[in-house]
């Protein structure tokens, strides 16, 4: 009881958690059905209890102080746990997990596998946001993210799911009609997304000067899933992450003319990320354990590369 008496008033904590998540007293008031002045008053009550400012107040915005950041992480975790506990007590355990992800990961891996998670966890509804935007996890715009990069984001825990291991791929028809004897011969073909720096990395690994790509029209399809569809349609050669297109390679919709894969040299890849302070929230913990388990199973059964026999011989100097 002594510890409980030292807790600040719940209305003050609710107002603070919303304002810290939204970085706006006005938006916090709209969410809570309060005026901006009422939110400001509750936060002042909390600051008096803490003994130091929780926000730096500017003309058109607010920012968390160091003390505010510390309290915000604890408050968010506490309200998450209260929400789950309240739902369980009411016998209504259904919760929504908002997952922001890049379009290629959503359109390929999640589309093929997410159903198993939903079947095993019927009380957790997954809402995907696969638009081209970077939602702020620390402000609660989404619960988790699958992002490309090197996995270093302040305040976020990150687990690499797929490395950036990429290579050129094209349709079997285009490969059959093209005279591909060396990696440099790929430059005779239409290159999809020629300004993608992955091209330069792969050609450099193969000892090919690909500087002329910068002189080509800089068409851009935006995502790998679109580039792969264009490649399957015979429109050119795409530079793709092999892990995403194993099925298309196995079933003959794409061919990878050279077995050599390149990477970005920075431990880059596709990462599962979420706020470190929320790692034990049930829906986050459940999805994390599921997806890491799925990739662990895939890693134990990854297929070897089967390059075109003619191009494999050429790459070996024959």
TrEMBL record:
The keyword NADP does not apply. Keywords: DNA-binding, Transcription, Transcription regulation. CDD domains: PBP2_GcdR_TrpI_HvrB_AmpR_like (cd08432). Residues 8-65 form the HTH lysR-type domain. Gene3D superfamilies: Periplasmic binding protein-like II, Winged helix-like DNA-binding domain superfamily/Winged helix DNA-binding domain. Transmembrane segments: none annotated. Belongs to the LysR transcriptional regulatory family. This is LysR substrate-binding domain-containing protein. The lineage of its organism: Bacteria, Pseudomonadati, Pseudomonadota, Alphaproteobacteria, Hyphomicrobiales.
